[in-house]
Amino acid sequence: MSQTETDPKDNGLRLRARLRYLYHGSQPAAVKFRLTVIVIDLAIIGFFLAAPILKNMGWAFYALDYFIAAILALDLAARAYAYANIKDWLKRPIVWVDLFVLATLLFPAWLFNLGFLRMLRLWTLLNSDFFWRTVGARFDDTRVEGIARALANLITFVFVATGFVYATFRGHDGIAGYVDALYFTVATLTTTGFGDVTLPGPWGRLLSIAVMLVGITLFLRLAQALIRPHKVHFPCDRCGLQNHDPDAVHCKACGKLLCIPDEG
Questions:
Q1: Which terminus of the chain has fewer Cβ atoms in its 10 Å neighbourhood, N or C?
Q2: Which helix (H) or strand (E) holds 232?
Q3: What kind and span of H or E run contains 177?
Q4: Please, are residues 108 and 156 in contact by the beta-carbon 8 Å criterion?
Q5: What mean pLDDT do residues 112-137 have?
Q6: Which of 36-45, 76-85, 102-111, 145-154 has the highest mean pLDDT?
Q7: CATH 1.20.120 fits 7-137, yes or no
Q8: What are the CA-CA distances from residue 264 to residues 18, 49, 63, 261 (Å)?
Q9: In the CATH hierarchy, which fold is given to the domain comprising 139-228?
Q10: Mean pLDDT of 168-176
């Protein structure tokens, strides 16, 4: 092989090294790249949120749908190639959620009724190491992260439940549009229960019960994240307890002397 020729294997190794630098590096250029990816992710989530209304755009909606599918496919392929072991990468539940979201984008005519599950992209984003290593590095393993995760779970559930109600009960009394479905979900989740919008039949009642139970649970988790005492992540090397009070001198589980760095 001449000096002017390049080995495809070497090109692949260089590409993988570059992707690992961008997706996992701590240098400013890598952080800026990941911030750009996160901003694009948030814009895509905004599109998912507005999709039930934008669907009336006709062919323009599908063109935008496939454009977003191409962006998401490139991002997932790059993340997989940058990962040390693709098989281990595929074992992560978050990855399968993202792959399903991609499928709804590639086949919108067949899977549009499952399009409400696209909002799970918000959950995968705010529960990923990728996000916290980039945007929330200083808040990782702190109360801020706990509140953000709890809030993401609640918001994701609200819009997934809204999408399910809209896709399943659209056209029934009271559910004439997406806003009606959102109104019903929030009223049921908060147990306000105005009664002006209800779901018909036993399945509608069972769904209402499920929304109330899950919603109360998620509200409680958010409240706990807001009011529980602040803990710092400092694993005890004797018993393995992960979180301690910021001013703890001894591990409350085994009594070992601790030396927790001062965050200030």
A1: C
A2: strand 232-233
A3: none
A4: no
A5: 78
A6: 36-45
A7: yes
A8: 35, 40, 50, 9
A9: Helix Hairpins (1.10.287)
A10: 79
Delimit the domains of the chain by residue range.
7-137, 139-228, 232-263
**What value does the mean pLDDT of the chain take?**
81
What single-letter DSSP state applies at residue 112? Answer: G
Given a cut of 60, whether residue 36 has pLDDT beyond it is yes
Report d(CA 145, CA 124) in Å as an integer: 14
Q: Is the dihedral of CA 43, 49, 51, 53 positive or negative?
A: negative
- Hunting for tokens 């988790």 — which residue is that? 221
Q: What pLDDT is stored for residue 137 in this prediction? A: 57
Cα separation, 88 vs 136, in Å, equals 25
Long-range own/partner contacts, residues 61-69 (CB < 8 A, 24 or more apart): 62/108, 65/105, 65/108, 66/105, 66/106, 68/44, 68/105, 69/102, 69/105, 69/106
